[in-house]
Structures are given as C-alpha cells and as structure tokens.
Design brief:
With 625 residues, the chain is α+β, with helices and mostly antiparallel strands. The protein contains 16 helices and 26 strands. It has three domains: 100 residues, no CATH class; 230 residues, no CATH class; 270 residues, Nucleotidyltransferase, domain 5 (2-Layer Sandwich). It starts with a strand and ends with a helix.
Length: 625
C-alpha cells in the first residue's frame, strides 16, 4: 500500500521517531514500518497556511486534494524507483510547525484536544472538559442552530492548564475559547476596549486597608466572561468533544453565542460592563480617577477590578452580606482572604500587609536556566553601551527576560527600576553584553528574592515624593533620565524611571522636567486619596536636590536660561504658587532615594536607597537568619 502523507515513522534499529514529508512509503517492502496520519483535529494546520504553489502542504505531490495522478503507479516494481520531486526548495515553515505530537508526557500541559484525551492523564483532562461543557450549558452560553449562509463562523479551541498553588497541583482546568482573530470588525464585533486598574491604585488600596487594620478579600467568579451577554450575532463551529457530550450528530450545525465566550475580542469589555452595572445597582460609585475602582460611602468599602480578578476592601461586619449579594448574581469559585493577586504573594495581618514576588522570581530563573550566583547590586557602575558597528546580535531570549524583569520592577521591586529601564533601551538590537547584564539583574533578584513592600497599620496618612534627574546621561542622543518615587507612610506606593523626550540645555532644565512628571503623579495621588476618604494633607511634599529648580518653580522668573522651556511644564508654577497643592523642599543628593532611578549606583550609595525602599523581608529568610 502506498501512502502519500506527513508521517511519523519509528526506526526499530535505534528507536527514533522520524518525521517525514513529501515522501512515499511502500509498507509492503518493510514489514515493521508504521505510519500515523496527522488528523484534521490537530491545531498546527490551522495556524500555518501553505503558499499558492503548494509548498509545505499536508498532501504530497499529485492533485489539489493530495490524490495520486492517474499516470502514477500505485505499487513498486523491481525496475521502477519512486520519482523524486523536481520542485525548487523554498523556505521551511516555522520550526514549531513540526513539533506537534499526538500525545503529551505527564507534567506538560496539552496543546490540543487530541493530546489531552490520549495522554497519560486523559481521565483527568476528560473530566475537566466535561466540567467546562457542563458549565457552559448551565450558563446558556449558546444555542445549537443550522449553519447560516453568508455569515462568519469562528473556530473554537481548547486550552488546557494545570492550576497550581504554592508550587503544588490544585486542579486540571480546560477552557473552551474562540479564535477571536478570525472575527470581522463591523460584522461580529465593534468596541473592544476594557480598562484595568492601575498598579498604583492597587498598591494604594492595599496600603489603605493595612492602615485601617483590615483583611482584604479576593472574589473569584467562575467563568466570569460567560456571565456577560453578547450584543452581536456570533457563530461558532462545533468544538471537539461537544458531539460526544450531546450524544447526537452535529455535523451540519453550529453554535450561536448568547454569552461572551473567552477569546472573543469584545469579551473583556462585555464583562466589565456586566460587573460594573451590578456594582452601581448595589450602591457603589465609579471613581473618576480610575474607572476600575468602585467605592461605597455608607459601607466605607472599595472594590477594585482587574479584568476578572476582584479585590474587595470592606469592614468585617459587611463582608458576609456582600458575599451573599455577589453569590445571588454570580457563581463564586472563591471568596477568601487575599493571598495572591496578579502574581503577587500577599501576607496579611491586623498590623501590616506585605507583598513580594519570591515565587515568580524562582520560576523566571528556572525558565531561563540562569546560574544562581550571588549579586549584591542589579548593575555595575556603568551604563550599558550601545552596540558597535558590526557587533553581532545575540540569539538569546533577551526581550522575554527583560519583559519578566519589567513586571517585577513595576509591581514590587523599585530597586531594579533603573536597571530594567537601561536594559529596555536595547530591546531592538541586544548583544551578548546586554544579555549578561540582564542575567546579572535576575541573579540579583534571586539573591534578594525575599525582599518586598510592607504597608503598616497607622492612624495618620502621609504621602510625599522625591524627584531627580541626571543630565545628558544617554551617550547616543544626550537625553536625560527622569525619576521619581512616592511613599505612603514611608512605604513605596509608586515610582518611575523614564527617558526625557527632549535634550535639556542644563541640569536645572533636566531637573525641572523631572519635577513636572512627579507633579503629575502627585496630583493623581491627591485625587485618588480624596475618593478613598484618606485623611491626607491638601499639600503634597516633593523633595529634590536642585535649588535652581525650586527657585524657578516658586518665582515667576523668566530670563535667557529659562525662556526656551516649553509651556507644558509651567503648570508646576501653577501647582506651587497659585493652587498651593504642591510643596517643594531641597534634599541633599546622597539622601534622595529618587537618585537610584536616574543612574547606575553601587556600594553604599545603592544600599542606602534600597534599604529605604525595600522595607519587608519574607518570613522564610527570617527563619533562616
């Protein structure tokens, strides 16, 4: 029998699997040969399309459907040899195209439906699939209808994931999603934007709860998106497993969606509208500063939304009543004390709330197989140089590593913010020395992985900030770097390191631009604090180490050294002189923690600022000490 398909062939001499294409096997000539035809259900054929000439197609040479031409022999003879293709070789498809197997080993998440139901853990995955289909059916997610003519029908996909907690397997999760990239704008989707809470808002809500001695609650709504109805007519192909679950023939049928299935372009927006409409019905008011923050004046409570993660800050006497109202509208899979949020490990008590990312840092080290060496600073005392002409670009996963570092620096580790900022400047063309610098930063994180932020209980509230800038620090375009950090009762609440958009003519101008960024953030914090009913001063103190900048801000001076400063920075004078909601104060450079956001520091200078920012040490390291 002659086969003309992509095949997996087992070589019995060395027990190796050989993947073949564009080759014909004569099974009668070799009794041990076995081939496994790739079924239509595998996902890689949907993501890779052959070109017009048929290169890299799933059929061998012959007709359009991969059938043999009439003049080709169907059995081998002694004199006849299989004809070789004379077609010109073209570029190969992506390497991932051929890395598909029909089964998965234990410990790996299945990539396709076939892998899930044929692997070693097929029973667990089958139960997860049936649970997902049952949940979708109970929520009235779809209606089985005949395939409509002239309508776009979206393809579905199964996504499988082992859910873990503290490194231990918790459950098997199967999620049916839609391939939203096949949707057509103006036909089956229109608006897609859905806001998420700013991380500054998240930290401020956590700090405010710690100040009051409260314990935060997290509410996990089961299949959150599926609670939101869809407004458009959306059709979905019958997913794998549904026909067996329904127990009837569905070949000529499709699904008309009634709810926002995961993967649709508008699902996040629909869910946001569904949840926020319910919160408004319950008496919560939307924040004008952050649309994902909802406050309740009578209960003195707050709800923060980050897609389908909900963080709840309520007095103890209102928690149970709010839970009952939430359960009456949505099905809850979890309603308990907050211990994890967006990858943050959170420890709560009546005295303080601490956040860190030790587990995430460990996973990143394992992901990139980084040697665990002790590093006491995230950088050397030199800025990263730009690549020289002809210098080779590294083939290491530089951007992926920088992305992981960036997430840590944004969430809990202001002490590596400048290091990550410097690394990010070289994302376009990283060299080996840039890769080694990124590895050093990760090794520093691993050395100090138990450091975090601590927000303590307090009767008073004090928000103050620090601002700083270098001058023409970038060796390529001579632009300066701005940095600021704000503290909530001596614990960092927000921070930033950013490259200025224009060249500054003096250190005073560079500092003035950096102060402008800090004033913007200060005003944001003032509005947010007012909505949260925080007993703060109407004036926010910002300290900086440039007296000239303070003089320009407090006095209407205009002379040859300042006349070129753009008007968009002159709102500083308005905030300082007229509205008086910003107060400026001089601080020596060696005491200014914002200095660590503008240049690479090492030794005692770095340790002093790091110790001021990173006030929390994880309990595991305390036990070791």
């Amino acid at each position: 029998m002659e086969q003309k398909v992509i095949s997996y062939w087992m070589d019995p001499t060395n027990n190796e699997i050989i993947i073949t294409k564009d080759v014909r096997f004569f099974e009668q000539s070799y009794k041990h040969a076995q081939s496994v035809t790739i079924e239509e259900e595998t996902d890689f054929s949907e993501d890779y399309q052959p070109n017009d000439r048929g290169d890299a197609s799933l059929s061998s040479r012959g007709g359009e459907n991969g059938e043999l031409e009439d003049n080709q022999p169907t059995t081998p003879t002694d004199k006849q040899q299989p004809r070789r293709s004379s077609r010109l070789k073209t570029a190969k498809p992506p390497s991932e195209f051929w890395k598909i197997t029909e089964v998965t080993t234990k410990g790996e998440d299945p990539k396709t439906y076939n892998q899930a139901i044929r692997g070693e853990e097929k029973q667990q995955w089958q139960q997860a699939i049936e649970k997902e289909l049952s949940n979708l059916e109970k929520l009235g997610t779809w209606q089985i209808v005949d395939k409509p003519k002239g309508m776009n029908i979206i393809k579905p996909k199964w996504v499988f994931k082992r859910k873990t907690r503290n490194g231990f397997l918790e459950r098997y999760k199967a999620r049916l999603v839609a391939k939203g990239y096949t949707q057509k704008h103006g036909e089956d989707y229109f608006e897609t934007f859905a806001p998420v809470a700013r991380h500054t808002t998240t930290r401020l809500v956590i700090a405010n709860a710690a100040r009051k001695g409260r314990i935060l609650i997290k509410a996990d709504i089961e299949s959150a998106y599926l609670n939101a109805p869809v407004k458009e007519d959306i059709y979905l192909h019958i997913p794998q497993g549904l026909q067996e679950y329904e127990g009837r023939e569905l070949t000529k049928k499709c699904l008309k969606l009634k709810k926002s299935l995961y993967g649709l372009k508008q699902s996040a927006r629909n869910w946001y509208e569904c949840l926020t409409n319910w919160l408004k019905e319950e008496g919560f008011q939307e924040s004008k500063t952050d649309p994902c923050l909802y406050t309740h004046e009578e209960m003195d409570g707050n709800v923060l939304i980050y897609v389908d993660d909900t963080l709840i800050d309520l007095p103890e006497q209102h928690k149970e009543a709010f839970k009952k109202k939430l359960e009456a509208r949505f099905k809850l899979s979890e309603y308990q004390d907050l211990d994890w949020h967006l990858g943050l490990q959170i420890q709560q008590s009546n005295k303080s709330i601490n956040i860190s990312q030790a587990s995430y840092i460990e996973r990143v080290c394992e992901m990139f197989n980084i040697p665990k060496k002790t590093k006491l600073t995230p950088t050397t005392n030199q800025r990263l140089p730009y690549p020289e002409e002809g210098e080779e670009k590294t083939n290491k996963p530089y951007r992926q590593l920088v992305g992981c570092l960036l997430w840590v620096s944004i969430m809990t580790r202001p002490d590596i913010t400048y290091a990550v900022h410097d690394l990010s400047r070289h994302n376009n063309y990283p060299t080996n020395q840039h890769w080694l610098a990124a590895v050093r930063t990760l090794q520093y994180l691993h050395t100090t992985k138990h450091l975090g932020l601590e927000y303590k209980r307090s009767e008073t509230v004090e928000i103050n900030g620090f601002s700083d800038s270098d001058w023409m620090g970038d060796t390529q375009d001579s632009k300066s770097t701005s940095g600021y950090i704000f503290f909530f009762n001596n614990a960092p609440i927000c921070w930033k390191s950013t490259k200025q958009r224009r060249i500054s003519m003096s250190t005073c101008e560079a500092e003035y631009k950096a102060l402008g960024e800090a004033v913007k953030e200060a005003r944001y914090l003032q509005k947010l604090a007012k909505e949260l009913k925080l007993p703060t001063s109407e004036t926010t103190l910002i300290q900086l180490d440039n007296i000239s900048t303070i003089c320009i801000s407090e006095n209407p001076a205009l002379h040859k050294r300042t006349k070129h400063i753009l008007a968009d920075f002159n709102f500083i004078r308005e905030a300082v002189r007229e509205q008086r909601d910003i107060q400026l104060k001089y601080i020596p450079t060696n005491l200014n923690p914002a200095d660590v956001f503008t240049k690479p520091l090492i030794g005692e200078k770095y340790y002093k600022h790091k110790n001021k920012m990173m006030t929390y040490t994880h309990s595991e390291i305390e036990e070791e000490c």
